[in-house]
Amino acid sequence: MPLAVEGKDAGTGARFAEELGRPNGHPKAITQVALDRSPAYLKGVKENFGNAAVVYDKYHVISQVTQAVDEVRRAEVRQDAQARASLEKSCWLWRKNPERWTELAQRRFERLQNKPLVTGLASAMRLDLQQADALASARVARSRFVKWCQWVRTEAQALGSGLLEPMRQAAAMVERHLEGILGHWKEGLTTAFLEGLNSLFSATKRKARGYRSTE
Asked: Which of 112, 129, 143, 160 has the fewest Cβ atoms within 10 angstroms?
């Protein structure tokens, strides 16, 4: 039975547990919880669903790494005048996957490919991490994630300019949440369906020009 409660703080978990008990449910019966790494949600889960394995949704992990690539691009534009000319108006080139590039974007990438851009290296790191989605097991995925984090740290240290610091921080995030990320392979749980619903809710709110309350 679908069940939802209002809120974005740690107390949301307690409210959900309470509502779950109304139709004869029990918080201890929950064995898996998919999250977006929100500290508040994680706290609510730990306090109210002690038997649940936490699964960090892969979409949000990649989203944070993509954001790190954008931070690298902005920093490189500020620090390097030559890079600034190359990277001008290129943010969507690095945010999209190559298979979604237009012909114009593909040609621009080919022109940038041989330039010593740190943004290009950061983008290659993101694309490499995304390929982990296709791995068959948690064991293989763990090895891939560990090697990826080592690669990012090594490149950031070797570069020395600090431009890859956002990627190093993203790698540290992956390491901190690795068990939860691997839960995708172990449990098969994802927030994709709810993300789709959320986009419909947002479109409805825009069309109605907002609502006064959830009710």
From this structure: 160
